[in-house]
TrEMBL record:
<feature type="domain" description="GS beta-grasp">
    <location>
        <begin position="84"/>
        <end position="177"/>
    </location>
</feature>
<protein>
    <submittedName>
        <fullName>Glutamine synthetase</fullName>
    </submittedName>
</protein>
<dbReference type="Pfam" id="PF00120">
    <property type="entry name" value="Gln-synt_C"/>
</dbReference>
<dbReference type="InterPro" id="IPR040577">
    <property type="entry name" value="Gln-synt_C"/>
</dbReference>
<dbReference type="Pfam" id="PF12437">
    <property type="entry name" value="GSIII_N"/>
</dbReference>
<dbReference type="InterPro" id="IPR027303">
    <property type="entry name" value="Gln_synth_gly_rich_site"/>
</dbReference>
<dbReference type="GO" id="GO:0006542">
    <property type="term" value="P:glutamine biosynthetic process"/>
</dbReference>
<feature type="domain" description="GS catalytic">
    <location>
        <begin position="182"/>
        <end position="618"/>
    </location>
</feature>
<dbReference type="InterPro" id="IPR008146">
    <property type="entry name" value="Gln_synth_cat_dom"/>
</dbReference>
<dbReference type="GO" id="GO:0004356">
    <property type="term" value="F:glutamine synthetase activity"/>
</dbReference>
<dbReference type="Pfam" id="PF18318">
    <property type="entry name" value="Gln-synt_C-ter"/>
</dbReference>
<comment type="similarity">
    <text>Belongs to the glutamine synthetase family.</text>
</comment>
<dbReference type="InterPro" id="IPR022147">
    <property type="entry name" value="GSIII_N"/>
</dbReference>
<dbReference type="InterPro" id="IPR008147">
    <property type="entry name" value="Gln_synt_N"/>
</dbReference>
<dbReference type="InterPro" id="IPR052725">
    <property type="entry name" value="GS_Type-3"/>
</dbReference>
<dbReference type="InterPro" id="IPR014746">
    <property type="entry name" value="Gln_synth/guanido_kin_cat_dom"/>
</dbReference>
Length: 730
C-alpha cells in the first residue's frame, strides 16, 4: 500500500484548481447574510426598531414584549433566507467560537407543529457550560452558565454547505456573573476607554460624547494541500510540524512576497472572500506573505468589537472554504521551523463621534495638542503596562514566534519614527520646567503635513517593532495568528483608559492651581514623555544589541508563556482591571489558570504526537532502510570484497544507527519527564515544568535526529510529507 504521502502527491495533478464562484460586484452581496439596521427597519415595527437602535447606541435594556417582536422579525428575515436553526454564538476561552444549534421548530401543547422564536430565546440561553474552561469559577457539579444577547454586534446567517444557521452574538457568563468569554470583558474595556477618552477630549472639544476604539487586523496564514496535510498527523493534531528537515529552497530567494498568487490559492481566496462579504466582513487586501505558502488578508477597519467578531468569523470561514478546495489553512503561529511565522497585526486607533481620529496628527496647534495627548498617553500606557500587554499575547504557539527568527521579540517596545522622535525630543528639551506661552511654538509644528509624508511612507516603517506607530494608528504586531484579538484589545484599551484617567487627574490638579489649560497639558505631556522614553526603540528589534540594550533599560523580556502570564495576577494588574471594571481579581485568577492550562495541554499534545510519530512513522522506515544497508554490506562482504567496497554504506549505516538510537532513547526520556510533570498539582509549576523539563530539553533534540534521518532514509520509504512538498506543491 502506498503511503498517504505518495497518494497525496499523485492526487495533486487531478485537483481542480478552478473552483471559482461567479464574480459578483462586492456591493451586490455585501452584508447579505447580516441582520443590519436596514434589515431591521424592514422587518421590525417602529417600536421594536427604536428599542433595538437605542440598545445598540446607548446600551439601553430591551423589554420582554419588544424582545418578542424583535425575535419574530429576525425569524421572518432568516426564514426568508432558508434558515431553520438559530444559535447563540459566543467566544469561550478556548480561543475559538462556540455554537449550539436549536431549531425554530416546536410543537404547541395541542400538538400543532409551528416555527417560533421568542424574546426569551433571543435574549438568553443556557448552554451546557461544563466543558468550557472556567478556571474553577464554576465547579462542574453546577455547570451552569448562560449566554446573553449582545445587540451591539449584528446577528448573521452562517452557511455551512446547504445548512444555514441564524447566529446571535452573545456574551457568556457564569450564573454568579463572572465572565467566561472574551467578549464581555472586551465590551467593558471599550466602555472604560470611551469614558476616559471622552473626558480628555473635553479639553479640546466639548462636543465629543463618544470615543470608539477601532481595529483593523491583518491576518497571516499558510495554505497547504489537504492530502499532504493529512499525511502529517502532527499538523492535524497540533497545527504545527514537529519534525521536518528544511527544504533546499526556503524563503531565501524572497520570491514569494507580493508575487503573483498561485491559481489554486487564488480560487480559494475568491471563494472565502465572497463568503466573508456576505457576512459583512469588509475585506480589502490579499497578498502573498514572505514565506512560501504564506498569505495575508486585511479588512477595512471597524469598531473593535465588530472587528473582533469578524476576525473570528473569518478564521472559521477560511477553514471551511479551504476544505471545499481540498486545501487546509494553517493559523498556527509557527507551523514550520526555520520559516517565518504568522501573526495577526492589530491596527488600532480611536475615533470620536465628531469624526476625528485621535491618533491622526492635527491640522492646527489645538488639534496637534489633542493628537500629542493621545499619542503620548498611549506610549506611557505601553511603558507602564508592557508586562500586561505581553501577557495578553502569550500562548504556546506564539512562544515559537516571539523572539524567534523574523518576529517581534518578546520585549515590548514602541516605534514612532524619526519625525515624531524629534517632536518628543523637542517637547522634552524646549518645554523645560517653566513652560510659557512662547513655547507654544512647538504646537505650531506642522505635524499634519509632515507626519503623513514621513510615516505613511513605507521606508520609515519598522517591521521588527512589536508596537509601531504607522501614521494615524498604532499597530500591535506581536499578536499571534490564531489568537482571538479580543485578548490583546482588552489589554490595550484598558491600559489606555487607566492612563488617560491619571492624566486627566494630573492636568486638572495643575489647572486648579491656576495654570492655563494648554500649559497644564504640556506639562503633564512632558512628564509622560520623560517617564516613558525607555520604551521607545527605533532600531532592529531582531538584533542581539537590542536584547542587551533592553536589559540595560530594565525592560522586561519574558520568553515563555507560563512566566509571561504572571503579569495577569500581579497587584498592579488586579488594580488596573478592577479599577476599570473589566475583570474582578477572581476573574483574573481564573483566566490565569485557564491560560496556563491551555499552555500545558498544547505542549502535552505536541510531546505526545512527537513520541507517537517517532515510534510509528519515523523509526519503521529508518529501521527498514537500516536493514537494507545491512543486507547490502553483508552481501558485499560475502562476495569477499575489500572493506573499501562497503565503507560508504557502513558510514551511512553508522549514522542511521546513531540517530535511531538517539530518537528512541530521547523519546523514552521525554515520556518519563512528562510523567513527572503530570504529577505536579500546582498549575503554574506544572506549566513551567512543561517548558523547562519537557519542551526545552527534548523537542529540538529529538527533532534534530529525526530530521537527520529524513535526509538519510530512502525518500520512497519516508511517510511524512516533506517541507518541500507542503510548502511548494499545490
Ligand atoms: P499597511 O501598510 O500596514 O498594510 P494599511 O494602511 O494598509 O497599512 O492598513 C493596514 C490595516 O490598518 C488595515 O486593516 C486598515 O483597515 C487598518 N487601519 C487603517 N486605519 C485605521 C484606524 N484608524 N484604526 C484602526 N485600523 C486602521
Ligand atoms: Mg501593517
Amino acid at each position: 500500500m502506498s503511503s498517504l504521502r505518495f497518494k497525496a502527491i499523485d492526487n495533486l495533478t487531478t485537483v481542480d484548481g478552478t473552483l471559482m464562484p461567479g464574480s459578483a460586484k462586492i456591493t451586490a452581496i455585501f452584508g447579505d447574510n447580516v441582520f443590519t439596521l436596514k434589515t431591521a427597519r424592514e422587518f421590525l415595527s417602529d417600536e421594536a426598531y427604536k428599542s433595538l437602535t437605542a440598545s445598540i447606541k446607548g446600551g439601553k435594556k430591551i423589554d420582554r414584549a419588544v424582545a418578542n417582536q424583535i425575535a419574530s422579525g429576525m425569524r421572518q428575515w432568516a426564514e426568508a433566507k432558508g434558515v431553520t436553526h438559530f444559535t447563540h454564538w459566543f467566544q469561550p476561552l478556548t480561543g475559538t467560537t462556540a455554537e449550539k444549534h436549536d431549531t425554530f421548530f416546536t410543537i404547541k401543547s395541542d400538538g400543532t407543529p409551528i416555527e417560533e422564536f421568542d424574546g426569551a430565546a433571543l435574549i438568553q440561553q443556557e448552554p451546557d457550560a461544563s466543558s468550557f474552561p472556567s478556571g474553577g469559577l464554576r465547579a462542574t457539579f453546577e455547570a451552569r452558565g448562560y449566554t446573553a444577547w449582545d445587540p451591539s454586534s449584528p446577528a448573521f446567517i452562517m452557511e455551512v454547505g446547504a445548512g444555514k444557521t441564524f447566529c446571535l452574538p452573545t456574551i457568556f457568563v457564569s450564573y454568579t456573573g463572572e465572565s467566561l468569554d472574551y467578549k464581555a470583558p472586551l465590551l467593558k474595556a471599550l466602555a472604560a476607554l470611551d469614558k476616559a477618552a471622552v473626558e480628555v477630549c473635553h479639553y479640546f472639544d466639548k462636543n465629543v460624547t463618544k470615543v470608539t476604539a477601532t481595529l483593523g487586523w491583518e491576518q497571516e496564514y499558510f495554505v497547504v494541500d489537504e492530502g499532504l496535510f493529512n499525511a502529517r498527523p502532527d499538523l492535524v493534531m497540533s497545527g504545527r510540524t514537529v519534525f521536518g528537515h528544511a527544504p533546499a529552497k526556503g524563503q531565501q530567494l524572497e520570491d514569494h512576497y507580493f508575487g503573483s498568487i498561485p491559481e489554486r490559492i487564488y480560487a480559494f481566496m475568491r471563494d472565502y472572500e465572497n463568503e466573508a462579504y456576505k457576512l459583512g466582513i469588509p475585506l480589502r487586501t490579499r497578498h502573498n506573505e514572505v514565506a512560501p505558502a504564506q498569505f495575508e488578508c486585511a479588512p477595512i477597519f471597524e469598531e473593535v468589537s465588530v472587528g473582533v467578531d469578524h476576525n473570528l468569523l473569518l478564521m472559521d470561514v477560511m477553514d471551511r472554504v479551504a476544505r471545499r478546495h481540498h486545501l487546509r489553512v494553517l493559523l498556527h503561529e509557527k507551523p514550520f521551523a526555520g520559516i517565518n511565522g504568522s501573526g495577526k497585526h492589530n491596527n488600532w486607533s480611536m475615533a470620536t463621534d465628531t469624526g476625528v481620529n485621535l491618533l491622526a496628527p492635527g491640522k492646527t496647534p489645538k488639534t496637534n495638542l489633542m493628537f500629542l495627548t493621545f499619542f503620548v498617553n498611549t506610549i506611557k500606557a505601553v511603558y507602564d503596562y508592557s508586562d500586561v500587554l505581553r501577557a495578553s499575547i502569550a500562548s504556546a504557539g506564539n512562544d515559537f514566534r516571539l523572539g524567534a527568527n523574523e518576529a517581534p521579540p518578546a520585549i515590548i517596545s514602541v516605534f514612532i519614527g524619526e519625525y515624531l522622535s524629534k517632536v518628543l525630543a523637542d517637547v522634552k528639551e524646549r518645554v523645560g520646567d517653566k513652560f510659557d506661552e512662547q513655547d507654544e511654538a512647538i504646537l505650531k509644528l506642522d505635524l499634519h503635513r509632515s507626519i503623513p509624508e514621513l510615516l505613511l511612507d513605507n521606508t520609515d516603517r519598522n517591521r521588527t517593532s512589536p508596537f509601531a506607530f504607522t501614521g494615524n494608528k498604532f499597530e500591535f504586531r506581536a499578536v499571534g495568528s490564531s489568537a482571538n484579538c479580543a485578548n490583546a484589545m482588552i489589554a490595550v484599551n484598558t491600559i489606555l483608559a487607566e492612563t488617560l484617567k491619571k492624566f486627566k487627574k494630573e492636568v486638572d490638579t495643575l489647572i486648579e492651581k491656576g495654570e492655563k489649560k494648554e500649559i497644564a497639558l504640556m506639562h503633564v505631556i512632558r512628564e509622560y514623555v520623560v517617564g516613558s522614553e525607555k520604551v521607545l526603540f527605533e532600531g532592529d528589534g531582531y538584533s542581539d544589541e537590542w536584547h542587551h540594550e533592553a536589559e540595560r533599560r530594565g525592560l522586561p523580556n519574558v520568553r515563555t508563556t507560563p512566566l509571561a502570564l504572571d503579569a495577569m495576577v500581579t497587584d498592579k494588574a488586579k488594580h488596573l482591571y478592577e479599577a476599570n471594571g473589566v475583570y474582578t481579581h477572581i476573574e483574573l485568577e481564573a483566566r490565569h489558570e485557564i491560560e496556563l492550562e491551555k499552555y500545558i495541554k498544547r505542549v502535552q499534545i505536541e510531546a505526545r504526537i512527537m513520541g507517537e510519530l517517532a515510534t510509528s512513522h519515523i523509526l519503521p522506515p529508518s529501521i527498514k532502510y537500516q536493514n537494507t544497508l545491512i543486507q547490502n554490506i553483508k552481501g558485499l562482504k560475502d562476495l569477499g570484497l575489500p572493506a573499501e567496497a562497503y565503507a560508504n554504506q557502513q558510514q551511512i549505516l553508522e549514522k542511521i544507527s546513531l540517530h535511531i538510537g538517539k530518537v528512541s532513547s530521547l523519546v523514552e526520556k521525554m515520556i518519563e519527564a512528562r510523567k513527572v510533570a503530570n504529577n505536579i498539582t500546582d498549575t503554574r509549576t506544572k506549566a513551567i515544568a512543561y517548558t523547562s523539563q519537557v519542551k526545552d530539553p527534548f523537542f529540538d533534540d529529538i527533532r534534530y535526529h529525526v530530521d537527520k534521518l529524513e535526509l538519510l532514509v530512502d525518500d520512497k520509504e519516508w511517510v511524512l510529507s516533506k517541507y518541500r512538498e507542503l510548502l511548494f506543491l499545490r
